[in-house]
Amino acid sequence: MIDMKESLFRDALYVMAASVALALVIYGVDVWLFSSSRFISLPDVFFLEAVFAVLAGIMLLLGSGGIGRGSERAAMLASAASAMGRDSVGPSELYRRDAWKPKSYVQAGLVLILTGTILFVIYLVSYSF
């Protein structure tokens, strides 16, 4: 039986491994594409990608919410059912329940934030040389 500490450790290890792998892939692609560029230096590319990765990770952590199409359809069906005289949950209850349900992608957000942090460390190390 797996206890909570092993599961948490395994999930954290997956997030760190995915972040390191993604940072290495981004590093390799950047070196391949921008090593001979005259317009932007390689450390500046690392910095920009680190900022974009952290911002994208924060947006994924925040998630999206609000009333989606599924909630609208359910509310229309509920109002049609109540108009026909059947007992059902009313549309106002559906909207109140689904008004703000955050749908975040926690692991993807954490991977992007950690990848951005790794790219920022690469920026600091490569800029100092």
Features:
single chain; 129 residues; mainly alpha; 2 domains; 5 helices; elongated
Short description:
With 129 residues, this protein is an all-alpha fold. The protein contains 5 helices and no strands. The model has no long low-confidence stretch (mean pLDDT 81).
Structural topology:
Blueprint: H1 4-34, H2 42-62, H3 69-83, H4 91-98, H5 106-128
**Which class best fits the helix and strand makeup?**
mainly alpha
Shape: elongated
Strand/helix succession: HHHHH
Helix content: over 70%
Total count of helical runs of at least 4 residues: 5
Look at the structure and give the mean pLDDT: 81
End-to-end Cα distance = 49 Å
- Structurally, how many domains make up the residues? 2
Any overview of this molecule?
- By secondary structure, the protein is an all-alpha fold.
- The chain has 2 domains: 1-64 and 104-129; 67-101, no CATH class.
- Helix content is 76%, strand content 0%.
- The protein is built from 5 helices and no strands.
- It has helices spanning 4-34, 42-62, 69-83, 91-98, 106-128.
- Helix 3 runs antiparallel to helix 4 (91-98).
- It is elongated, with a radius of gyration of 23 Å.
- The mean pLDDT is 81.
